[in-house]
Design a protein that fits this description.
Blueprint (H helix, E strand, L loop, with lengths): L1 H14 L3 H13 L2 H26 L5 H20 L15 H13 L3 H12 L3 H22 L1 H6 L2 H24 L3
Helix pairs in contact: 1-6, 1-7, 2-5, 2-7, 3-5, 3-6, 3-7, 4-6, 4-9, 6-7
Length: 188
């Protein structure tokens, strides 16, 4: 159950104010077909989370306990740095000849591939014995972060203190990742 909750909260935090939310806002505004955009979000989040969970389940048994902890610490540090990094607006995929579902699904899948939340799911799946729960939690976290943007459009991003959320979350993740990393290397 820890894998589910950590992945859910980490991915939710990692998506706040990120490029994925900005892309979803642009696509929802352009297409004005909420159902298709939300379906694209769900499929892309599930695909990215599944890839990470499967890779983590494959990598995990090859590593010792300290190496798995260090891998998870690096994933948390990576997500923390990503939260502190300045977010530039993504390409709004205006030239894509596909409809709202396919554009959203492919755009988010490509944008999220190798992003902080996906790497976090990989780290959790590698560290714990529950890669399926890590994948489910990560997918839910990404969906919970992105679907409200479609429903209420820019109002959500306007009322949330995204800068404070990203800076505070980034600092907490860097601190916890550093502590985990030091523990994994025996320096703490």
């Amino acid at each position: 159950m820890d894998a589910l909750l950590i992945a859910l909260l980490g991915c939710l935090l990692g998506e706040m104010g990120d490029k994925s939310q900005l892309l979803v806002l642009a696509l929802a505004t352009r297409y004005d077909r909420d159902g298709a955009v939300i379906a694209g979000i769900v499929v892309a989040a599930a695909a990215n989370a599944a890839i990470s969970a499967i890779a983590g389940a494959w990598i995990g048994p090859m590593l010792g306990a300290d190496a798995r902890l260090l891998f998870m610490a690096l994933a948390i540090l990576f997500l923390g740095v990503g939260l502190l990094w300045r977010v530039s607006p993504p390409d709004t995929l205006d030239g894509w000849p596909t409809g709202p579902f396919l554009t959203t699904m492919l755009g988010l899948f490509i944008l999220g591939f190798g992003d902080g939340p996906q790497f976090l799911i990989l780290g959790i799946a590698t560290r714990t014995a529950d890669p399926i729960l890590a994948g489910i939690g990560g997918a839910i976290g990404m969906i919970v972060a992105l679907v409200p943007v479609v429903v209420v459009r820019g109002q959500l991003l306007a009322i949330l203190p995204l800068r404070a959320i990203r800076w505070t979350g980034g600092a907490l993740l860097l601190l916890s990742g550093a502590i985990m990393g030091l523990g994994a290397t025996g320096l703490l």
